[in-house]
Every structure is written in structure tokens, then in C-alpha cells.
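Structural prep section.
Before we set up the soaks we want a predicted structure of the protein with iron/sulfur cluster in place, mainly to decide which crystallisation condition to try first. Input record follows.
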Amino acid sequence: MSAPDEERVSMAVDEDRCIGIGQCELLEPDVFRLGDEDAISRVVDGVGLARSRALELVDRCPSGAISIVEPVA
Ligand code: SF4
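Run finished without errors. Recording the C-alpha cells verbatim:
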């Protein structure tokens, strides 16, 4: 769990690195979605995640395709 006042950050997926495992969509289906045609993950929710959760997602991606972009205003 993240603290309620924790900073939120935006996420990004490097489509060239994504290998379509789907871990990100499984963990955060409101933020990541795999393409029906190409099984490449894309960010669908710009609201992002609490920083600690974002770091966990970065860590759980097997191809290193997920990164943190910037704090959400
Ligand atoms: S966890 Fe990483 S490799 Fe797997 S679908 Fe998401 S971005 Fe792609």
C-alpha cells in the first residue's frame, strides 16, 4: 500500500523493448493495456501511480521497458 499523500508519477512504455509478457497489465490494468493486434503494452491512464507502486512496476517488467516519466501535477 502507498501513503495517501505519496507523489504520483506518470508511466511510459518503450514499445521497442516490450516483449508482451503482460505483467504490467495484470498488476495495473487501469494504467497498462496490451494491444489486441501486436501484444505490446501501452499506457492508457495518464494519471499514473503512486511512486512506490510505479517503482515496483518498473522492477517487475522483465524487459526493462517501463519507466517513470515525471510527477503528475
Ligand atoms: S511487463 Fe514489460 S514486457 Fe511485459 S507487457 Fe508490460 S511493458 Fe511489456
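Observations: The chain has a mean pLDDT of 91.
Flagged for discussion at group meeting.
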